[in-house]
């Protein structure tokens, strides 16, 4: 049984009977990261961003390109775990680098650590040369961030993730890019961070992370407390928009009919 | 055309300690595992290995064969973190050069094209530069850009696994992704290709169109017939990844005693014995 958050009257879109779960609110918040991106490759890493990218294509951003998770570009909107209805292109790893370096891509990655200026770590906890905990490695994070828009999804918003300084800079942030010079800054575009508590961006001073909205029932203080550095604040911190009835239908009936999202994001 | 057919042991006899070896495939996909297993049985050690790593890297690390690893990641795909890699990173004693995935491609491309380096944006401002202090940036002679100069990753030898090959070393992939196997071969002084099936040259196109003939005989110095040679990694469409076996591998790797038993059961004899044992458990 899934705990639900009553949406109540919500932009008049969802009926009063509708109730969105936290996972669904997060998926919609992630989907909005790609809003207005046009004909570029949306590259979601892990489940919630994958649901979100398909939701974005089904609603606000029909021109987005999506991978089938293997080496094809897929058409249509399909359920996570299933095969897509149609293939529209070939996307082996070598072609992913081409899309990336051309800047025609917006990735949403899941960092193990993320700091105030958007530096992200997926390589190692502790010193790189002698890590307390080895992680995946740099993967494509340096190349992604320096070449095209990047957003982040954080399953559990806590000080261990939102750290003052990351142990290893894989995805680059605004302070490190500024120190490296204009070529590193040229295409750096950190768009949005979605966590299980809030939506944030990098609109603070010098590209510092900024609280934009809190999810229903979450206070600003809770987000501040779960963040290991000083958060900038939007002029008006609002409540994260709730899913519309159509978005809920797409998530529940089309994109994630098995409800995998509820195992990924649990209400606090 | 020269007949380059040989067996795994012949390939390994052409390798020596201290060499730089590139291994094709990607993560736990189409890895030349029978060649890796032959390497495990040899005295060759102190290797620098360049790879988009999977269990090939895990096995070689566990056997103490690698003194320097050059990689973008090491993963089993369905199991995100390679357990032997993780242990080796945390234990130390091996030099780890971790690059962005694209940097690795660019270093191989530079080597393949006999260039000392290629400029790239990937890596700028990241800790790739901090943990590899030998890396340099280069100023564009045509503009203001200051780019990373990715050094050529020249290889003494490359090991790759393909679906089909002829005796001359033309080789074909029939899955959806070529990965970077052609680039590994071209970046190497000598490239060794294992394949699921060896076919007469005239039959290569029965398997797929000309553009599936990824590796050309001028790349190749040895061809090995290795049915099920990528096991337990995937070799689509001939077979998928052996997930139960990979789980067994990963679980064993997490525990020294279990690992000893795994090695004794699967890796203490030759390739024929390995294939019989995994066939018996499939």
From TrEMBL, chain A:
<dbReference type="InterPro" id="IPR004165">
    <property type="entry name" value="CoA_trans_fam_I"/>
</dbReference>
<dbReference type="InterPro" id="IPR037171">
    <property type="entry name" value="NagB/RpiA_transferase-like"/>
</dbReference>
<dbReference type="Pfam" id="PF01144">
    <property type="entry name" value="CoA_trans"/>
</dbReference>
<protein>
    <submittedName>
        <fullName>CoA-transferase subunit beta</fullName>
    </submittedName>
</protein>
<comment type="similarity">
    <text>Belongs to the 3-oxoacid CoA-transferase subunit B family.</text>
</comment>
UniProtKB/TrEMBL annotation, chain B:
<protein>
    <submittedName>
        <fullName>CoA transferase subunit A</fullName>
    </submittedName>
</protein>
<dbReference type="GO" id="GO:0016740">
    <property type="term" value="F:transferase activity"/>
</dbReference>
<keyword id="KW-0808">Transferase</keyword>
<dbReference type="InterPro" id="IPR037171">
    <property type="entry name" value="NagB/RpiA_transferase-like"/>
</dbReference>
<dbReference type="Pfam" id="PF01144">
    <property type="entry name" value="CoA_trans"/>
</dbReference>
<dbReference type="InterPro" id="IPR004165">
    <property type="entry name" value="CoA_trans_fam_I"/>
</dbReference>
């Amino acid at each position: 049984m899934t705990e639900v958050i009553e949406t109540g009257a919500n932009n008049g879109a969802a009926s009063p009977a509708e109730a969105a779960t936290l996972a669904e609110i997060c998926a919609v918040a992630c989907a909005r990261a790609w809003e207005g991106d046009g004909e570029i490759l949306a590259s979601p890493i892990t489940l919630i961003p994958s649901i979100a990218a398909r939701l974005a294509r089904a609603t606000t951003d029909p021109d987005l390109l999506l991978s089938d998770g293997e080496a094809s570009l897929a058409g249509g909107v399909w359920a996570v775990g299933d095969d897509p209805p149609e293939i529209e292109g070939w996307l082996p790893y070598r072609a992913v680098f081409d899309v990336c370096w051309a800047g025609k891509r917006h990735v949403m990655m899941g960092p193990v650590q993320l700091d105030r200026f958007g530096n992200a770590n997926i390589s190692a906890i502790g010193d790189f040369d002698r890590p307390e905990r080895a992680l995946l490695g740099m993967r494509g994070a340096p190349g992604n961030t320096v070449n095209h828009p990047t957003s982040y999804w954080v399953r559990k918003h806590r000080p261990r993730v939102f750290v003052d300084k990351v142990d290893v800079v894989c995805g680059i942030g605004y302070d490190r890019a500024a120190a490296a010079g204009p070529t590193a800054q040229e295409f750096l575009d950190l768009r949005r961070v979605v966590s299980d508590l809030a939506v944030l961006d990098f609109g603070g001073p010098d590209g510092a992370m900024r609280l934009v909205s809190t999810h229903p029932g979450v206070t600003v203080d809770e987000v501040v407390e779960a963040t290991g550095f000083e958060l900038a604040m939007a002029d008006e911190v609002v409540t994260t928009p709730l899913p519309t009835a159509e978005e809920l239908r797409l998530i529940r009936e089309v994109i994630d009919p098995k409800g995998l999202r509820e195992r990924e994001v649990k209400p606090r | 055309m020269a007949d380059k057919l040989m067996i795994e042991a012949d390939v390994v006899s052409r390798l020596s300690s201290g060499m730089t070896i590139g291994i094709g495939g990607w993560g736990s996909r189409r890895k030349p595992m029978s060649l890796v297993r032959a390497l495990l049985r040899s005295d060759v050690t102190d290797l620098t290995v360049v790879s988009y790593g999977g269990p090939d890297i895990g096995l070689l690390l566990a056997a103490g064969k690698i003194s320097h690893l050059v990689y973008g990641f090491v993963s089993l795909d369905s199991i995100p973190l390679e357990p032997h890699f993780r242990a080796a990173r945390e234990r130390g004693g091996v030099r780890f050069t971790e690059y962005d995935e694209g940097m690795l491609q660019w270093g191989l491309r530079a080597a393949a094209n006999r260039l000392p380096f290629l400029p790239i944006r990937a890596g700028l401002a990241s800790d790739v530069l901090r943990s590899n202090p030998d890396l340099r940036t280069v100023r564009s002679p045509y503009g203001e850009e200051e780019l990373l100069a990715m050094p050529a990753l020249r290889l003494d030898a490359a090991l790759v696994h393909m679906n089909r090959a002829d005796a001359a070393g033309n080789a074909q992939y029939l899955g959806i992704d070529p990965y970077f196997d052609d680039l590994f071969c071209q970046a190497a002084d000598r490239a060794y290709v294992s394949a699921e099936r060896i076919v007469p040259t005239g039959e290569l196109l029965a398997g797929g169109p000309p553009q599936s003939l990824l590796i050309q005989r001028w790349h190749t110095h040895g061809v090995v017939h290795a049915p099920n040679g990528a096991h337990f990694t995937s070799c689509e469409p001939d077979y998928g990844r052996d997930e139960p076996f990979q789980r067994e591998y990963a679980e064993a790797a997490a525990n020294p005693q279990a690992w000893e038993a795994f090695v004794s059961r699967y890796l203490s004899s030759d390739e024929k014995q390995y294939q019989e044992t995994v066939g018996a458990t499939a």
